[in-house]
Amino acid sequence: MLFFDELDSIAVQRGGNSGDAGGAGDRVINQLLTEMDGMNAKKMVFFIGATNRPEILDRAIIRPGRLDQLIYIPLPDEGERLSVFKANLRKTRVADDVDLKFLAGEQTKGMSGADIMEICQKAAKAAVRESIEHEQRLKEVNKKAIESGKTALIQNVDPVPCLTRVHFDEAFEHARRSVKDKDLENYARFGKEFTIDNTRGG
Fold this sequence. Notes:
Helix content: 40-55%
Number of helices: 6
CATH topology of the largest domain: Helicase, Ruva Protein, domain 3
Distance between the termini: 21 Å
């Protein structure tokens, strides 16, 4: 099995690359098509390509005998978004005040798995930043205590901070949808033109 991620980066429509030096892009596609045709006799070889720009693919690559079955994987639904949250946070301490089912609901409707991953990363960064700031404040307090002849305040700082609702609230302030409604409309038009089979994916 051969998997091509971001297929549009090498299989864009030929003849439209005005800035392409010497038509290198067209030659790449031509060679790719030749290799795919040469594999036809080998029944156990499968070509799979992924793209979020299907409208710019060269039509020759999606004709019968090549990438001839088109499958549209929609944005994750609520249950799938919850699974994405759990997968991203499986090795992270999360406080009891964080309701992942709530976060996977209307809060993230229309978001992709990558968008949710970004939210989890921003929340983790907020927790780490808070932990570092707390440690710095503690050092300042201890320093002043020692300078004044008092006993330093001993308090351990957890090296692995726990993600709280506050951290997720901060993350959502900068959350965004990477897939716009216009993009979804383009996918629908492409699907009607090329009869895309539908399946559901996370």
